[in-house]
Amino acid sequence: MARVGGGSVKGAMEEQIGPASRWLQEARALQTRLVEWRRHLHRIPELAFQERETSAYLAAQLQEMGLSPRRVGEAGGTGLLCDIAGADAGSGSGPTVLLRAEMDGLPVEERTGLPFASVHPGLMHACGHDGHMAMLLGAAALLTVHRRELPGRVRLLFQPAEEMRGGAREMIAAGVLAGVDVAFAQHLWPGLPVGTVAFKRGVAMAAMDRVHIRVIGRAGHGAAPHLATDAVVAQAHVVLALQSLISRRVNPATPAVLTLGTVHGGKQENVIAEEVDLTGTVRTVDPACRQSLPKMIEEAVASAAAGVGARAETTWEWGYPPLVNDEQALNALARAISGGRGMSGIEVRWLDTPAFASEDFAFYLERVPGVFAFLGAGKDAAAVLHSPTFNVDEAVLPVGAATLVVAAFELLVLARERRVGQTAGVGLPASNIPLESACLGRRVGSEGR
Asked: Each residue of 262-309: pLDDT tens digit?
């Protein structure tokens, strides 16, 4: 640990910042506002890159706090960026931490029966993004009051289009990571009790890529299948072949999940279909496995289709990379939450396996070190992510707001230590995250694959 004047940077900062339970107590005092924010946002879900009403509401709340949010993204973009500078951050020499929350909803018809249910037909906040935004607003309120205590700058990012659209890429292209030393985000996680913050070392969430398959036969009359090539039958062989591929050609010690989510084909019941389209996702945690699957899938699909006289075209779309937590930042944050100066009553849990859901926060962590946390949202059996009955225990809101504040302070201290250490030649690592894949010798992000 770098030392200045006989004492550590971290020790001096801890004395200034105080125990983490302070932030939980102050966040709980904001419970009424947190619930109000969350419920208002829950009523107005909007799809990716269409979050205009959401963006306007968030901007108004931040402006009421005396902050100056600005829109980011292409012309008319819905993303919001807002900096809160500490007393010594004006010179630009201090570190910066990014805190992110997602804004978009899902095309799900809500069936919760809540009095604050979605007013937008066919749309719902079924992944907790309403809660994420409310918690980041709560953190903004606390950080604004205590901004002079900040050992650097906190950058708040309300990001559009996390669901399947990779809005993080547009935010990065717009420059949101300029000057950022470290990043943090969290996700409400059903099945974990409120009061739990869970972490996973290394790969925390799987990569997610997309596959589109077109099976092509020859149309004909339903009464004369021998004169046609039935694309529906061919696609059935393709589906079965792909399931066997995962179970028989992928090392069982290297998890992978292939899900075909849509099948579309045929125009009339007495006409043998000429084409059937299938789309799906492929999730992996190992870079080498991820790189090998496109060719394996293409070969399996072509062989299965050819076996019944059809042919197939396979298109692969690289999606989200695996989300990898920085070890040093992860340890520092876990200690800050659960240690002797941590948040009283909050439990840190360590997950043994990565989540196979995917997150575009991974794009930020390809470029800067950071941490992604799983926030216990309650054990309600109906609270399944992306379900039309999804809901969370609102007691989690102050826990999440406080966790964001703790992350801001702790990661700023860590970033300052790294800067001091590098200046002094101590050699503290900038990150443990490999921007270049050790397996493949090149970047494992979305570009150039």
From this structure: 999 999 999 999 999 999 999 999 999 999 999 999 999 999 999 999
Type of residue at 379? K
Cα torsion for 291, 293, 298, 301, to the nearest 10°?
Answer: -170
Distances (CA, A) of 406 to 22, 36, 403: 10, 23, 5
Distances (CA, A) of 389 to 125, 228, 418: 10, 45, 45
Q: What is the pLDDT of residues 393-420, one digit of tens each?
A: 999 999 999 999 999 999 999 999 988 7
What letter does residue 117 receive in the DSSP assignment? -
Give the residue among 194, 228, 215 at the shortest CA–CA distance from 375.
194
Is the separation of the CB atoms in 199 and 373 below 8 Å? Answer: yes
Q: Which two tokens stand for residue 306?
A: 């050819």
CA distance 157 to 375: 19
Would strands 196-199 and 153-159 be described as parallel, antiparallel, or unpaired? unpaired
Both tokens assigned to 134: 């409310």
153-159 β-sheet, strand order:
70-72, 79-85, 153-159, 96-102, 182-189, 370-376, 196-199, 347-350
Distance between CA 386 and CA 384 in Å, rounded?
6
Do 124 and 110 form a contact (C-beta atoms < 8 A)? yes
- CA angle, residues 196, 199, 203, in degrees to nearest 5: 155
Place of tokens 């799809």: 47
**Which of 164, 151, 63 minimizes the C-alpha distance to 105?**
164
H-assigned helices in 208-272? 231-249
Backbone angles phi, psi at 23, to 5 degrees: -70, -35
Answer yes or no: are the C-beta atoms of 273 and 231 closer than 8 Å: yes
Which residues fall within 8 angstroms of residue 268, CB to CB, at 6 or more apart?
Answer: none
String of DSSP letters for 55-114: HHHHHHHHHHTT---EEESSTT--EEEEEEE-TT-TTS-S-EEEEEEE---BS-------
Could you report how far apart the first and last alpha carbons of the chain are, in Å? 39
Element spanning 133, H or E:
helix 129-145
Enumerate domains of the chain plus CATH numbers. Answer: 3-204+322-424 (3.40.630.10), 207-320 (3.30.70.360)
Does residue 122 contact residue 46 with C-beta atoms inside 8 Å?
A: no
Structure tokens at 285: 């945690």
Neighbours of 6 (CB within 10 A): 5
Segment among 206-215, 217-226, 435-444 with least mean pLDDT: 435-444
